[in-house]
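Retro notes, structure queue

What went well: the backlog is down to a handful. What didn't: a couple of records were mislabeled last round, so from now on we paste the full input next to the output in the thread. Example, using Importin subunit beta-1 from Plakobranchus ocellatus:
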Amino acid sequence: MVYRSVLKAIQPLRLDKRTAHKDTMSSRFPQRRHNMASFYQPGRALSDGEQNRNLIEVSFSVLEISSSKMDLIKILEKTVSPDNHELESAQQFLESAAAQNLPELLTSLSNILKHGGNSPVARMQAGLQLKNALYSKDNAIKLQYQQRWLQFPQEMRQLIKKNVLDTLGTEAVRPSSAAQCVAYMACAELPHGWWPELIPCLTSNVINPNSTEMMKESTLEAVGYICQEIEPEILQPQSNEILTAIVHAMKKEEPSNHVRFAATNALLNSLEFTKANFDQEAERHLIMQVVCEATQSTDTRVRVAAMQCLVKIMSLYYIYMTHYMGPALFAHIRHEDWRYRDAAVMAFGSILEGPDPDKMKSIVESAMPMLIELLKDTSVVVRDTAAWTVGRVCEILPESVLRDTILKPLLTALLEGLEAEPRVASNVCWAFSSLAEAAYENAEQPDEDSEPETYCLSSCFEAVVDRLLTTADRTDGNQHNLRNAAYEALMELVKNSPKDCYVSVQKTTVIILNKLERVLSMEGSIQSNNDRVQFNDLQSLLCATLQSVLRKVTPEDAPKISDQIMTALLQMFQSTSGKPGGGVQEDALLAMSTLIEVLGEQFQKYMDAFKPYLLLGLKNYAEYQVCLAAVGVVGDLCRALGANIGSHCDELMMMLLENLGVRD
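Corresponding output:
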């Protein structure tokens, strides 16, 4: 027996026969239970009588929990005891029993789980202990557990599997412990081609008209767990069987909401291996019908699970989804429960890319007023998803938002959204990035290479720039990548600006330069590594933004600000030379490259000051990105200076030849 080791450990204890007989008789009546910990009381010497009494109590306590199946049941019940001593004692016993003979312990646990006469607590804990021997959240440990299970004797595995399958539908608690056990045994065996009868058995449980509510529910839970954990290709051959059972249990004719909920969750976990079914129109219609019907269920759990299914279906099989858009999504986009609104908007955003844009256009145009309204929703989650979806619309179907009737209220809502929580404002910034690009591409241009005179954002360009700069300065800008998103939106806005916004671009250039100078002046106040990281990140962002604005500055205006730019960039090189800060040096070199391109031959006057830092960059083999950027700058200098590069060629060529000789 699995308990022999415990009994052997007790045998050396010498007990007085009369005392033992007396305690055995008294144990028939309720008395205070002691555990192993109560025997040891450091710091106090015990009398002989106390020692004997404690030895007896410990001995009979151990005998009580280890001599029969009934004792294992008591141990399992003590695993939820509020008494820490009892709890620890029970856990220690189970660990010891598992170490001595795990297959036999799991067999005993499966027997306890199977028999309905045992207490619900004992059965639930038996299932939990069994599950914990088969599964771990750590993938490496889980693999070890699966290999260990496969090495058990076949007859023991068969008995345990039979017991847990027989348990399905007999438990009084939800969710089913047996369902998890079935699933994790399946995850170990099915990849090896073992247990081929499992899926037919489970699907039969669901479809059988004589199956009880609990049988169908627990079986569907098992199916859901299996689909969630196992690789999709393993279940591919049986996908029709599985899907038939799930859809059967999801239908509105199913009287039990518990069963419908379990079935809907199972569908959610099985969608990745049902592509062949979605490719067939009749099967696709049936699946979508039961999912859409489930979104109308009176049970909240079923409705939420069905909406989650819709979101995932829209993401996986979007090419088929335009037909189902209206009924399923717009019915919930104004739902009083924010979860439904969020799910509907998420599903809408997920299917935008893929279907024929011409077919989507009318749907998107009808949805835009609702999306704009949802940017002001009471739920931060809905506002966040709405901002993301608006960004998707601007990126994929821009013509749907550039009409005056949509654009004006959209801009108002987006500008207000920049003041929202960081997660929302970050998505609003992305929406502005997509909107700026869309507006520029749809502007009237004489030819492809020319810059448009104006576009639909011209009237609000400066206001948007100001708000993005304010957003970049928010004290919570480090949350949800907000500061980066704000500067990226600003870069896109400047990059995609027409001629009539040039004055605003000039102002923005000066603002960015002033910001960079202020940041550089803070070098002396850095006190921690975290300060240094934030300092470097901000320098990099400002350098990248400076590149964008410089590319829009005309050759006539560039010399007016070039001295100020060179001073700032040289200060950046000086502060990072010889220090780990390759990212900042790379960004400074890229900004310098843009300045060289804009100034052309006029950059010659800066060569003596810049060349030492360029040579350092060319020698920076350890940070190859810096070295690569420096090589790129050499090429830019040659193109910009022409013959004037001659006086610098000896040093530059020597460094380039050395670079060619460097091995990775």
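Agreed that this is the format going forward. Reviewer comment attached to the example: The two ends are 63 Å apart (CA to CA).
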